[in-house]
Specification:
Blueprint (H helix, E strand, L loop, with lengths): L1 H10 L1 H32 L1 H5 L5 E4 L15 H7 L4 E15 L5 E9 L10 E4 L10 E5 H7 L10 E4 L2 E10 L9 E5 H7 L9 E6 L5 H12 L2 E4 H15 L2 H30 L1 H9 L4 H36 L12 H27 L9
Parallel strand pairs: 3-8, 5-7
Antiparallel strand pairs: 1-9, 1-10, 2-3, 2-6, 2-9, 4-7, 5-8, 6-7
Helix pairs in contact: 1-11, 2-9, 2-11, 2-12, 9-12, 11-12
Amino acid sequence: MRWLAWRMLTGDRTKYLGIVFGVAFGSLLIAQQSSIFVGLMRRTSHIILDVTEPDIWVLDKYGQNVDEIQPMSLNRLYQVRGVAGVDWAVKMYKGLVRMKQNDGDFRQAILIGIDDSTMIGAPKEMIQGSIADLSRPDAIIIDEAGYSLTYPNEPVELGRTMEINDHRAVIVGICKVSAPFQTFPVIFSRYSQATQYAPRERNIMSFVLVKAEPDVNKKKLCQAITDQTGLQAIQSDDFFWFNISYYIKNTGIPINFGITVMLGFIVGAAIAGQTFYLFTIENLKQFGTLKAMGVTNIRLLRMILLQALIVGTIGYSIGIAMACAFFEITGASGQADLRGMYVPWQVMLITAGAVSLIVLVASLLSIHKVLVLEPAVVFK
């Protein structure tokens, strides 16, 4: 019966390919748009993903995300260090600055000032230069994509100079970091240097990065820091989701991508469902013949489900392959807008669930016709 189900399914190649195309198109839209949405949300937390040393991030109690920062005084750092259970705590600056090149051209950039003595928060992957070079006067490290944006079509050259807030800056290294949400260049400097580059404010410090002592409960330590300092202390993993929740609640990104994903589901269900239904209707005589020969409804039901499983599996595989190929090709082309995006396994699972629902709905529409079919239809 399996062979017969396969032959019936592929007997009309046009309709067979139409069903597969519908499922594949729906899978592609769902997987691609969902992956872009996940990638954008990850970009909002790029600094949290890259800075892996601390267990806890401490920020102003009214801070709502990693970009909306209320600067704190240095006294706050010493208060955090005085909390029992804190192994070490260091300061970090994060803010936007303007890089002015020698020819007058300028770029907005994300400046990250890391602790002078420990260099905690420095980029993990260096392409040229080293982290130790940051100890040189006016030294900055810029990310690879930011360098290409600042000096398009020019070879990488260390020692280039520019101005940041009327202060001299020298590129001493090129690093690789996670893509930021705004696609601005990301530059690193020592904290003491960053205070010179940053716009004038009475307080400069953006975050206090905290490492808990071994065997200390991090959740209780966060509560202790909050109680004793009045600041907001959040574990790194929780801070990641805290930041993403802000963008989900306060921007239109989830709605826009949700609409596209829903359209992909509806279009895929409409094409696959309609074509599969018409396929069953046109094969009613064959199903009636099988019924007249004594084939039970259960076996016919299995045949239809097998046909749905085949087109669903093939269509899903094609759709996921096309989505993966899209990100591979755009990534290889150096397209900055989609840098670092890929199809996560969670998106593959969600897409598989959506495709299963599509083929199930298509099957239910067809099954009803076969179950109520009278064998006598063969002789009409």
